[in-house]
From TrEMBL:
<dbReference type="InterPro" id="IPR001584">
    <property type="entry name" value="Integrase_cat-core"/>
</dbReference>
<dbReference type="GO" id="GO:0015074">
    <property type="term" value="P:DNA integration"/>
</dbReference>
<dbReference type="InterPro" id="IPR050951">
    <property type="entry name" value="Retrovirus_Pol_polyprotein"/>
</dbReference>
<dbReference type="InterPro" id="IPR036397">
    <property type="entry name" value="RNaseH_sf"/>
</dbReference>
<protein>
    <submittedName>
        <fullName>Transposon Ty3-I Gag-Pol polyprotein</fullName>
    </submittedName>
</protein>
<feature type="domain" description="Integrase catalytic">
    <location>
        <begin position="26"/>
        <end position="186"/>
    </location>
</feature>
<dbReference type="InterPro" id="IPR041588">
    <property type="entry name" value="Integrase_H2C2"/>
</dbReference>
<dbReference type="Pfam" id="PF17921">
    <property type="entry name" value="Integrase_H2C2"/>
</dbReference>
<dbReference type="GO" id="GO:0003676">
    <property type="term" value="F:nucleic acid binding"/>
</dbReference>
<dbReference type="InterPro" id="IPR012337">
    <property type="entry name" value="RNaseH-like_sf"/>
</dbReference>
Length: 197
């Protein structure tokens, strides 16, 4: 790849002064399995990561690294994680609103009628059908279980790490990490120096 870039045959990539091959702002990771595995290991097992799923992990790595099979490699890496296999559920309930009085009021009923939309409610006293909030709770519970398995201790000792990991990982519902949405920037915690060492 470097030869093609040096010969001007590939303008998608750039070689920096230090010899690092870049794809835009992302470092191109050589086809060295141990190096790619170390990057994925750091992004998955580090205390600030808390075992993200493959989509979150890929979205967290994508701004920093590039290699042709990265998405597939991340999915395979996460699928092999024994901790994730123990704590993550296979299927989730669909998203439905709960029966909070704010949503069951006359105002909301009138608004939905005027807009021609329907608001579906979860079954009373059955919060598992409220998918959005339950999905968030499930994610946090998975992170707590992973803490107990990984760190051999009480999950409550690791609540700050769980909060940090949750708020700094990609959320598909908003298209970014909550921290990024609130502060218009990222907390850079990835070990981008791995390739330079």
């Amino acid at each position: 790849m470097k030869t093609k870039v040096q010969e001007g045959k590939n303008d998608q990539f750039v070689i920096q002064n230090d010899g690092m091959l870049m794809n835009g702002k992302r470092m191109c990771v050589p086809n060295v399995e141990e190096l790619r595995t170390e990057i994925m290991h750091e992004a998955h097992y580090a205390p600030y990561a808390m075992h993200p799923g493959s989509t979150k992990m890929y979205r967290d790595l994508r701004p920093y690294y590039w290699w042709p099979t990265m998405k597939k490699d991340v999915a395979e890496f996460v699928a092999k994680c024994l901790t994730c296999q123990q704590v993550k559920a296979e299927h989730q309930a669909p998203a439905v609103s709960d029966r909070d009085p704010r949503f069951t009021s006359h105002f909301w009923g009138s608004l939905h009628k005027a807009l021609g939309t329907k608001l579906h409610f979860s079954t009373a006293f059955h919060p598992q059908t409220d998918g959005q909030s339950e999905r968030t709770i499930q994610t946090l519970e998975d992170m707590m279980r992973a803490c107990v398995i990984e760190f051999r201790g009480n999950w409550d000792d690791h609540l700050p790490l769980i909060e940090f990991a949750y708020n700094n990982s990609f959320h598909s519902s908003i298209g970014m990490a909550p921290y990024e949405a609130l502060y218009e920037g990222n907390v850079e915690v990835q070990s981008v120096g791995i390739l330079r060492d």
